[in-house]
Inverse folding.
């Protein structure tokens, strides 16, 4: 800007070379307009040398190096007669670079870590106007692979592996044949032994089954028969399905003048252990009912809890012993007045009055089991009318898996069935419950003993 302010008027001329001169207060300014012409002459490019691991080699079209990791520097020069200092370069090392590098004025390129493979270096030069060289300078570099990458080594190893597998298979076939002969001899010897053991096991199994069936007859003899139960309570039914031959579920029924006591219980365990528990507990219950001071359903439960703990030595001194016990519901019916008293240990019960179902959860404590000094058994009092129903049951029906999603029926499903059948005759109610249970269970195994007693006043 200051230069133009210092120009002298008419102080300008063109010399014989075509340069323009201006006079200013600060001196002369010259300008060669011919330099504004575009330089369309492409530059030349020449690779001067290659430095491999700090050792310089003259240019050659091709280099072949033994296996290793190399630091390689390529030195090159762009040849341009006009403004050679403005020559720029672009290069790509095929096999290493993914694309051409950006233009640079640095006349060399360094690759610090090149491993085995085939590479081709291509270099272009550009003059100050961006015109590229007519031809690229090309150098081929090949670093030999290690022995384990050579085709002949791979072929040799493959052949060795195949031959090794062949030998292994042949050896295995031979050993297998020997083993087969040995096993055949051993099998013949063992077959005779197994047949003898099978006969012995079948004999023992028959003895065990006969013993369990005899235990079943004993259990059936102790349980009130259906005929005796109907004599006491004519409008009633008993649905009793043990999971095994014998059952841990049991019931007790006794009458004293106009009073009938019905107890439904679920002892610890299934099968033979559960049956032993049920025999012991039913005997204890009958002894308790014979005592004069036991005058209410909750008193029966308190006395039963005391006796079970005493018989099975349930105490806090030996915490590792099994906590045997049972869940039970005690129902006292006054057949003359229709008064009903029910107390329950861990078992719910259902009462139907005028066709409306009422569900009661019962106490949260079991009989026996863990030592709790604050067990509370509550007695519920009812006055029932004719055709009202009482349902006492264990958990086997509600806990059965089945249905389209193979889930438990649950108490809600059982209550729904009770609501549909409570107006039926007792025998028809039993048939409907059996049908519902079989359809729900389908092909699933029975998971627990099933006991339901329905009583109509």
């Amino acid at each position: 800007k200051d230069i133009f302010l210092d120009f002298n008027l008419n102080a300008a001329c063109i010399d014989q070379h075509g340069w323009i001169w201006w006079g200013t207060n600060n001196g002369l300014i010259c300008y060669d307009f011919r330099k504004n012409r575009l330089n369309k002459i492409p530059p030349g490019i020449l690779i001067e040398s290659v430095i491999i691991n700090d050792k310089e080699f003259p240019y050659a079209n091709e280099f072949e190096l033994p296996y290793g990791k190399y630091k390689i520097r390529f030195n090159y020069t762009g040849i341009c007669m006009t403004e050679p200092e403005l020559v720029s370069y672009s290069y790509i090392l095929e096999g290493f670079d993914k694309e051409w590098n950006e233009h640079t004025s640095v006349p060399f390129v360094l690759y610090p870590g090149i491993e085995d493979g085939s590479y081709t270096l291509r270099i272009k030069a550009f003059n100050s106007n961006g015109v590229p060289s007519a031809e690229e300078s090309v150098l081929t570099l090949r670093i030999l692979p290690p022995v384990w990458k050579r085709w002949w080594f791979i072929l040799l190893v493959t052949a060795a592996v195949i031959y090794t597998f062949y030998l292994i298979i042949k050896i295995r076939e031979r050993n297998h044949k020997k083993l087969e002969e040995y096993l055949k001899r051993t099998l013949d010897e063992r077959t005779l032994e197994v047949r003898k053991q099978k006969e012995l096991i079948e004999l023992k199994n028959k003895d065990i089954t006969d013993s369990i069936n005899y235990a079943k007859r004993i259990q059936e003899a102790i349980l009130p028969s259906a005929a005796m139960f109907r004599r006491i309570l004519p409008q009633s039914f008993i649905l009793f399905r043990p999971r095994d031959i014998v059952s841990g579920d049991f019931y007790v029924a006794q009458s004293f003048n106009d009073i009938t006591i019905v107890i439904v219980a679920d002892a610890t365990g299934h099968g033979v252990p559960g049956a032993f528990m049920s025999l012991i507990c039913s005997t204890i219950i009958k002894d308790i009912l014979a005592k004069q001071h036991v005058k209410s359903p909750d008193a029966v439960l308190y006395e039963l809890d005391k006796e079970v703990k005493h018989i099975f030595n349930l105490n806090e001194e030996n915490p590792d012993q099994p906590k045997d016990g049972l869940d039970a519901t005690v129902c006292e019916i006054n057949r003359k007045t229709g008064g009903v008293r029910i107390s329950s240990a861990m078992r719910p019960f259902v009462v139907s009055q005028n066709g409306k179902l009422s569900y009661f959860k019962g106490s949260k404590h079991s009989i026996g089991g863990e030592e709790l000094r604050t067990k509370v058994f509550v007695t519920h009092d009812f006055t029932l009318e004719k055709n009202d129903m009482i349902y006492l049951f264990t958990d086997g029906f509600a806990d059965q898996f089945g249905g389209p999603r193979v889930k438990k029926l649950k108490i809600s499903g059982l209550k729904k069935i009770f609501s549909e059948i409570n107006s039926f005759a007792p025998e028809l109610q039993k048939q409907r419950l059996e049908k519902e249970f079989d359809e729900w269970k389908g092909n699933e195994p029975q998971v627990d003993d099933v006991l339901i007693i329905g009583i109509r006043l």
User: Anything to note?
Assistant: The chain has seven helices and 24 strands. The two ends are 123 Å apart (CA to CA). Residues 151-222 form one domain.
